[in-house]
Specification:
The protein is α+β, with helices and mostly antiparallel strands and 74 residues long. It has a single domain, classed as TTHA1013/TTHA0281-like (2-Layer Sandwich). 24% of the residues lie in helices and 31% in strands. It has one helix spanning 35-52, and strands at residues 5-12, 17-21, 29-32, 63-68. The chain has a 4-stranded mixed sheet, covered by helices on one side. A hairpin with a 4-residue loop joins strand 1 (5-12) and strand 2. The longest helix has 18 residues, at 35-52. The termini are far apart.
């Protein structure tokens, strides 16, 4: 089994989109309106970027999307 790849995402409050990047996947930078849409994009982008960067991997490729929504308490 492959070790899981970690993808970090934060909510851009002004644009109202989730922005994702990963130290484990060189070149990964994408965005989506929802985390569900983001996951679907990542399912396509991660294998493509690993191939482009010559990083060996076994499919399926496990990844964890770690989200960081920010909130304010009054």
């Amino acid at each position: 089994m492959n070790k899981p790849l970690y993808v970090h995402a934060h909510l851009d409050d002004e644009a109202r989109i989730w922005v994702a990047a990963s130290d484990d996947v060189p070149g990964l930078a994408t965005e989506a309106e929802t985390t569900e849409e983001l996951i679907e994009k990542l399912k396509i982008m991660i294998p493509e970027l690993l191939d482009i960067n010559g990083i060996e991997h076994i499919r399926p490729i496990p990844f964890e999307l770690m989200t960081r929504p920010f909130a304010f308490a009054a």
